Amino acid sequence: MAAKIHKWHRRIGLLASTFIVFLVVTGIVLQHSDDFNLPNQHLSNTWLLKYYGIKPNPITTYQLGNFAISHAGETIYLSGEPITSPHENIFGAVTVAEHIVIAVDASLLVTDLEGNLIDEISTQDGLVEAPLGIAVSDSERLVIRGVNTYWHGDRDLTKWEVLQGPHPEWSSPDITLPALRQVIEAKDMGNQISFERFILDAHSGRVFGKYGIWVIDAAAILLLILSITGIWLWASRR
Q1: Using CA atoms, how far apart are residues 131 and 193, in angstroms rounded to an integer?
Q2: How far apart are alpha carbons 89 and 87 in whole angstroms?
Q3: Under a CB-based contact definition with an 8 Å cutoff, are residues 75 and 86 in contact?
Q4: What are the domain boundaries of the chain?
């Protein structure tokens, strides 16, 4: 009896060793996730992203001459390159005096022509209300659309007054060109799955679907049997 159990113990141990190595390696990586900066690194492999069922977010683009301001997910792009901090919504973009001004959730973002953030102006900084639209007047001054009022800003965007005169041409979305769409979609999809989540899903077997979870469960059962037979063999020899 002991000989048969010893034989199966060895076979189970050989089979389980593969899973042990896999679980130990992924477990150590997860234990040091912050050290490896895994939460801030993202998958870029198109096949893996499609395997996860990841789809790109809708893209909104405002064409500003040779520049294009786009928004996908919570990221704002200048000609395909991510700029500024995350924002859920965008309501338009214009160029004023060698600067780009972008209307977002409750503020105005001011960047240079390379996308470097210069200032963010909110209602706490003198903005009269959250912008729902943005335009440039005939006098080259910024205009924002509020809930019921149009506001005319001064050169420094620190003082605002009710717009008098004809209504401006509001910034409106343009078609996102195919080449630009391809660039943004690749970056947008790549921002949705972090390496930390991927390793965690691999460690638990979820990355392989429901069958992967069953395989990890089976590996756990094998380790349990291995422990029990090991204890039994140790006890039988005493």
Answers
A1: 32
A2: 6
A3: yes
A4: 2-41+194-236, 59-175
d(Cα 154, Cα 140) in Å, to the nearest integer? 10
Dist. CA 217–CA 96, nearest whole Å: 61
Pull the structure tokens for residue 213.
């979870």
- Superfamily name and number for 59-175: YVTN repeat-like/Quinoprotein amine dehydrogenase (2.130.10.10)
pLDDT for 215: 66
Distance CA 221, CA 104 (A): 53
Q: What is the pTM of this model?
A: 0.66
The pLDDT value given to residue 1: 53
What pairs with residue 102 in β-bridges?
93, 109
Spatial distance between the Cα atoms of 94 and 136, rounded to a whole number of angstroms: 7
Task: Give 10-residue mean pLDDT values along the chain (238 residues).
Answer: 54 63 76 79 70 82 94 93 90 92 93 92 87 90 90 86 86 94 84 75 68 67 68 61
